[in-house]
């Protein structure tokens, strides 16, 4: 079953077309990466799919609901860990998690249960009492993903989850993301080729708002006639082959 289907999705900012007639199909349970250089339109795509910004053309179905006509239903199905840090810096990690549970009107018991569950899943026990703003970028991101999962979304959006993290923190976060694979649909944006290669079931390569190619690493390598994904990415982006 399809988790996401976009139909000629467009976002125009005055004269700039940030997303240009995007057609995308993402299956339920898939980890799909949108890969592209800066300014390719990845964040804008995610913002439209998560109803944070309205498309200027086309539409998309998220969990079967239209982002233009049924945004409230869409918002109930999704979780978002945005590029800019989502944690409240002056609150402790536990307070951040409690805040989101409160937004969803969880009872005291359910809040405690949820925090226990997520602490186990994301190994947050040691940082629960610490101020979120004082944690490293990797830990803050881990907390942000845990917060996005509180509502038990069917679809999770991760916008540049490892941006600015050192290599160790990046690999640790990859493990966290891998542990979610298959359980929910994940749409991730990145400009790190190795990240897309390490995590994704399929990858969509974007440039200047357009989707140039979509497929598994093997399919994209075959398309570019190489065994090396970095070479394939560079070749597809340079040739501008829209498929
Ligand atoms: N609110 C806005 N107003 C005007 N232009 C915008 C706005 N948001 C994004 N853009 C432009 O749209 C284009 C796509 O931006 P977007 O952030 O979606 O790219 P991206 O692929 O996510 O890049 P990055 O990897 O740098 O985050 C860029 O040229 C950007 O400058």
TrEMBL record:
GO terms for molecular function: ABC-type transporter activity; ATP binding; ATP hydrolysis activity; lipid transporter activity. Keywords: ATP-binding, Hydrolase, Nucleotide-binding. Residues 4-233 form the ABC transporter domain. Its EC number is 3.6.1.3. It holds the Pfam family ABC_tran. One of its GO terms (cellular component) is membrane. This is Adenosinetriphosphatase.
